[in-house]
Design brief:
Elements lengths: L22 E4 L9 H10 L4 E8 H6 L3 H11 L4 E3 L4 E3 L10 H12 L7 E6 L1 H13 L5 E6 L2 H7 L4 E6 L2 E8 L4 E5 L8 H18 L1 H9 L1 H5 L3 H21 L16 H10 L6 H18 L5 H14 L21 H9 L6 E4 L5 E4 L4 H15 L16
Parallel strand pairs: 1-9, 2-3, 2-4, 2-5, 5-6, 6-9
Antiparallel strand pairs: 7-8, 10-11
Length: about 400
């Protein structure tokens, strides 16, 4: 008699892997007497020098020509802890660096050539796109080597550099390839911000409005109260903005219950369904923060039209963003497809696909808290787009006072 096999039997594998990483705020990270980086390496891996590969965003290297030399000097000062496996390598940065595998391949080839091991580390210095691309490569080497991020823009320091995402674009699809891989540490060195253009300072502040509108009413009131100082990039106010915004992002990742985004909710993607589409429609003429600001303007009006917040509050926040210097409209909103419909509306379906087929769009309800919406009224969206066009071309008063208590 033939032996019977029970193929219905199963076993489960279940384990938990705790993650934690520090986010530092500092000045002059690579000054020889600043021991933050050396102390971190010593704490994370014990005794002995740690082999490290360092990659620098080309834009950062051009703005800080002494940076490679400063890093080399820092390594000499802390030779008992930090061993450079090669000279710091300058690679292309900006969103374009994510549109090919050039940066990733360079990182991987160099790691192979110097025989980087799993106990080594890669240190990436640059803007958010650069950190994404280098982080993606680091996650592939030996199934993941330690990545230390040094974000150098306002946007990267208060948002993208804090999280656990790494990735590149593919055939126009933003972040189509990527991994969730927490960094070993993040160093927000404010001294890198001093060479940024005003446009880059301002566009990075858009993410502060995003997280404040849906997570922290007190922070939102602070933004409105200090909009004039922020518009002039006053250092103390900007540094507080970055710290608070980073704290809110870190709290969401650590306490939100879904750091690797296995579910459909994206509470930090307020304004992003339109923002991501606007980036591609504008051929990346718009910075990420600028595109998100426009997306937030549309969604603030939609929230008011839906009764989630008052129209006065929507106008007050949009006016503040304008006062800061952020756009709330772009000609890409007028681009139509073959069917005569605005192409920006395709961003809704693309957002749905990004979420795994189930649409979840966050809106403020009330300010400082969020409500998830699973379907959007297209005619209402179109009206809001027309309204932001009108608002862009008229003077909107900005009250540097707290928002009203009305909920619409």
């Amino acid at each position: 008699m033939a032996e019977r096999h029970d193929y219905t039997a199963s076993t489960k594998v279940k384990f938990e892997a705790p993650y934690q990483y520090p986010v530092y705020f500092c000045h002059n990270l690579f000054h020889p007497r600043n021991s933050l980086l050396a102390d971190l390496l010593s704490e994370q891996s014990g005794s002995g020098a740690h082999k490290c590969l360092i990659f620098i965003d080309r834009g950062v290297a051009e703005a800080h020509p002494q940076l490679p030399q400063n890093i080399t000097g820092y390594a000499r000062e802390h030779a008992d802890i930090l061993e450079l496996s090669d000279d710091p390598r300058v690679l292309a940065g900006g969103e374009q660096c994510k549109n090919s595998f050039d940066v990733c391949q360079d990182v991987i080839r160099r790691a192979r050539r110097v025989r980087l091991c799993r106990h080594s580390c890669i240190l990436a210095i640059g803007g958010g796109a650069f950190l994404d691309a280098v982080g993606f490569a680091a996650a592939l080497i030996h199934r993941g080597v330690r990545l230390i991020r040094v974000p150098t823009t306002v946007l990267a320091q208060n948002d993208s550099g804090i999280g656990v995402k790494n990735g590149v674009n593919l055939n126009g699809a933003k972040n189509f390839l990527g991994v969730f891989a927490p960094p070993a540490a993040v160093f927000n060195d404010f001294s890198f911000l001093h060479t940024l253009s005003r446009r880059d300072w301002i566009s990075g502040m858009a993410e502060a409005f995003k997280v404040a509108v849906i997570k922290d009413r007190q922070f939102l009131d602070w933004l409105l109260e200090h909009i004039h100082e922020l518009a002039t990039c006053e250092p103390d106010k900007t540094e507080y903005l970055i710290r608070r915004c980073a704290e809110l992002h870190a709290a969401h990742i650590g306490q939100g219950g879904d750091p690797f985004e296995t579910g459909a909710e994206r509470p930090l993607d307020f304004g992003h369904w339109a923002g991501h589409k606007l980036e591609s429609l504008s051929l990346h003429e718009l910075r990420h923060g600028e595109a998100v600001a426009i997306g937030m303007a549309i969604d603030l009006l939609y929230a008011a039209e839906s009764g989630f917040i008052s129209i006065d509050d929507a106008y007050r926040i949009i006016g503040a963003m304008k006062k800061l210097g952020l756009p709330v409209w772009h000609s890409a909103l007028e681009v139509e497809g073959a069917d005569g419909e605005p192409l920006i509306l395709a961003g809704i379906e693309e957002f749905r696909q990004h979420l795994g087929g189930s649409l979840t769009v966050p809106f403020p309800s009330p300010l400082g808290a969020k409500r998830d919406v699973s379907s959007l009224d297209i005619n209402r969206i179109k009206k809001c787009i027309r309204d932001v066009c009108r608002i862009e071309n008229e003077t909107v008063s900005v009250h540097d006072t707290k928002t009203s208590n009305s909920r619409g």
